[in-house]
Design goal:
alpha+beta, 6-stranded antiparallel sheet
């Protein structure tokens, strides 16, 4: 027993010396659970795939102030009684070296209603708290900026920047591709 007690710190030190780092990985919600969180249990959810033209990509990137990594963008459209109740996008990106997956939910008019962390693979101290995401709500696309009303989080600078970029991109895609089609 005494040997095992002293072996743990030595084993941890050996792992770190040889370049093996502890793995941090948390998956909070599956896709189905996320859709229920976004739209409720009784909503019908349809996937809408969008293929922006080069001109639309340029406009989305200008509005979002972030590059589009793909020429395909998917929204999940929540409906109740054939009425659209909102749009959700699942965004995955690397924070430092490991991925984070967010669900960004918009109301039918394209206003930011909710941002939820679905999975976070960086160390937990780098994850922004829910109250940080709540400050993003009720802001226009132009207001979603650290130079405006959005406060950063010490120790989670890269995470908050990546999350803010995802929210801006989702709102910009809605503004360029969904809103004109609705009018």
């Amino acid at each position: 027993m005494l040997i095992l007690k002293h072996a743990r710190p030595i084993l941890l030190m050996a792992l770190l010396v040889f370049g093996v780092t502890p793995c941090f990985s948390t998956v909070y919600y599956s896709k189905d659970e996320a859709m229920k969180l976004a739209f409720g249990d009784d909503a019908k959810v349809e996937m809408q795939s969008l293929f922006p033209t080069p001109e639309q990509v340029t406009e989305i990137e200008r509005l979002a102030k972030v590059k589009m990594e793909s020429k395909l963008f998917s929204f999940y459209v929540g409906k109740k009684q054939d009425q659209i109740i909102g749009y959700a996008a699942i965004e995955s990106h690397n924070v430092r070296t490991k991925p984070e997956t967010l669900m960004v939910v918009l109301d039918p008019q394209g206003n930011l209603r909710q941002v939820v962390t679905l999975a976070f693979h960086e160390p937990p101290e780098y994850q922004p708290p829910e109250r940080w995401f709540n400050q993003l709500l009720n802001h226009t696309l132009d207001e979603l900026s650290f130079s405006k009303d959005i406060q950063g989080v010490t120790g989670a600078t890269l995470s908050t920047r990546a999350s803010l970029n995802s929210a801006r991109k989702v709102m910009a895609v809605f503004q360029v591709m969904i809103k004109p089609a609705k009018n």
